[in-house]
Write a structure and sequence with these properties.
single chain; alpha+beta; 4-stranded mixed sheet; two-stranded antiparallel ribbon
Amino acid sequence: MTTQLQIDFVSDVSCPWCVIGLKGLEQALESAQDAVSANIRFQPFELNPQIAVEGEDLAEHIAAKYGSTPEQSAANREMITARAAEVGFTMMMGEGHRIYNTFDAHRLLHWAGIEGHQRALKHTLFETYFTHGRSPGDLEALVSAATDAGLDPVAARDVLISGRYADDVRADERFWQEQGISSVPAVIVNRKYLISGGQPAAAFEKALRGIAAEAA
């Protein structure tokens, strides 16, 4: 008998560790399907809510935000790219990679949750940004991602142009910040247990099995 869990995956589509964390979580759920089943709801978090529409060079942004040298930044990107490859994701973060505002992507994800395509869109948005290097704040890139995720492109464009769900996303962001979430990915199980960071699948599986056993 499996235990049904509710998982809130708090993340940003411009967060590379969120890709790694989601892949690890999904692999863990597959391995633990004898004991656990889960519904994943993706919750919004903006790493850089004040960033300009045109974005910023990633290396320059990291240097300004964390004081990293170009060499440190390059080494970190290489390490993350390798970790992503281990979980089957192609990540391109070479020289000239840019970071963008993601608020519209979160509005689209909110709508996708209503339409039942949120998980597919999350994966497509990760690929849009990290694999193909397109801005997750660009209208055409977002409509294309929605289409690839099985959503109606006309309806997606209308959501984006209209500004719909902005208040809902802001409210969700505030809620998770008020719960103490200040870094992502943050995986909250049954609104009670927190698993932080881009954990390996084995770590997620151990945690999920423990939570399921306690819930049962």
